[in-house]
Amino acid sequence: MKNMSEFDFIKWIQGRAPGGRLTLGIGDDAAELALGRERLVFAADMLLEGRHFDLAQCEPRLVGRKALAVNLSDMAAMAAEPLAFVVSLALPRDGGRRLGEELTNGMIELAETFDVALAGGDTTSWDGPLVVNVAIVGRSPEKGAVTRSGARPGDWIFVTGRLGGSLAGHHLRFAPRVKEALLLREDFDVRAMIDLSDGLASDLRHISEASRCGAVLRRAALPVSEVALSQHGDEAWRAALGDGEDFELCFALPPDAGRRLAARGEIGGTPVTHVGQMTEGKGLQWDDGSDITETGFVHDLR
Ligand code: ADP
Ligand code: MG
Predict the structure, then answer these.
(1) pLDDT single digits (tens) 156-176
(2) 25 CA closest ligand 1 atom index
(3) Taking a C-beta distance cutoff of 8 angstroms, is the pair 224, 164 a contact?
């Protein structure tokens, strides 16, 4: 295989994956399957020691917490209500028992907060590092799940919370925006949504490509986290745009709903910021017309 990014690989899979009875297949934050009147939404995410966390620097409890939290965040991105999850663990042979227990405790604590059931999983041990995979299932809201592809030119672009500098600690402790997503779906006409795992530049590009629109951002409007501000000062907008793992929501609303939400400034107690607009064009630009070249984080495949 020659140099090929994660995204090219996923496109390759997409071209040959059997779709069965899916109502939404590969390419969004989660897939959807109609079952009678309900629609199930499901997704999976894997964390690797040495890549997504470092056990020398963080407690196993927080690793377990994060493994579930990233999956809850994908449910939020669809405005789905999470219901249950399964966990697969590859534990290092030495110290694996204790590690597994602490990790599971961290996961259970978060599961109770979000009222999701731990439904099973798989446990193995080996001489390699810790690997944690979580797969989650939820259900679509009555109005239907929110995909990445429904934004239209003129829609207002919002983000929840503050962005940038997540690796200083936020990535282990973030609150998945599940409640916020359900409220948005209920009260506003959310047209497209994604959770910010790879950075705003990269993830908004997914909405833009899936919706076949351009997007314009106002640099001065980007809600920069305090950590990013203290680390980068005037350049903190770069962190807000390019750092991954914020796990905030980015979404598009038609102008009327956008105006209404911007006036409120919050959803479910979490601040929301109007950061830009979808356009007739292509790609991402600043409001002065210059191209946004930042790409965010891309997993490399060789
Ligand atoms: P996210 O960052 O929201 O977790 P990803 O970028 O990991 O999403 O995945 C994008 C899409 O590709 C999703 O629909 C996901 O289910 C799918 N996908 C990722 N890896 C694979 C794989 N190995 N086989 C099939 N589908 C995959
Ligand atoms: Mg996602």
Answers:
(1) 999 999 999 999 999 999 999
(2) 14
(3) yes
